Amino acid sequence: MFDGLLLSLLSVSKVTSSLLNVYLCTGDFTGINKTYLPLRETERAYLEGVIQKKNKESKVTLLDLTQLLRDELPAEKNLLSVYTPYALMRLFLDLLPEIPGRILYLDTDTIVLKDLEPFFKENLEGKDIGCVLDNLRIIFWKPGYVNSGVLLMDMDLIRHDGMNGYCRERVALKKMKRPDQDAINRIYRKKKKIKVFLRKYNEQRKTFPDTVIRHFTPELKMWPFPHMVNIKSWQIEKVRCVYKLHEFDALYTEMIALKRDYFLSLD
Question: DSSP letters of the chain?
């Protein structure tokens, strides 16, 4: 995930000079899968240095949610889904006193193309969260189903309404294919706590001139036969060869150089 974090944060810092207050949620879940290692202080410090090149006041805070997830999800019913336990961490943000009253949550597989400040200041009109419809699932069987990879969250309201708590209860009790996203759609939509924004804030198919955030989610391809393609932003050669995308080449070049510098610093 370091590649994705580095790429996403680098992209944010390239398009804004505003102070960035970044929270990285991590945890140790090697008991479930030996590759589920937590982020380290060395990685946090390096990522902070990357965004401080644009604004020296920017900072990155590392938050360990290992115990929170173990305490509330002991049965591991949804910790063993096709998604990692880290996908569930957005449902625990209300329990963290460090998290401020409003945040913009981004999945690691996002590239930011325009300044995030206008989106961050959007009017939620009394709703707890703001998000974009899910590109894949609304087409066929779930109209109104939203994507949880980009969430504008009014944490004060979420804490007041207890919505994340209801989502956690559902995740603990009911087996779901996409635990975090299905729970958000079930709980938040039922209570009418979602404001749906334009797709430019979470573009899941292709980049347009007004795209603010490009999100690399699974796509259904029809040629030469219907099949799913799931390529992440940091899989550079696949992005270039399969998606035929070269608009991020300059960003990739800088990311590769930064990654090389990071590993050299560890020697």
Answer: -HHHHHHHHHHHHHH--S--EEEEEE---TTT-TT-PPP-HHHHHHHHHHHHTT-TT-EEEEEE-HHHHHHH-TT-TTTTSSS-GGGGGGGGGGG-TTS-SEEEEE-TTEEE-S-SHHHHT---TT-SEEEEE-TTHHHHT-TTPEEEEEEEEEHHHHHHHTHHHHHHHHHHHS--SSHHHHHHHHHHHHTT-EEEPPGGGSB-S---TT-SEEE---EEE-SSS-EEE---TT-HHHHHHTS---TTHHHHHHHHHHHHHHHHHH-
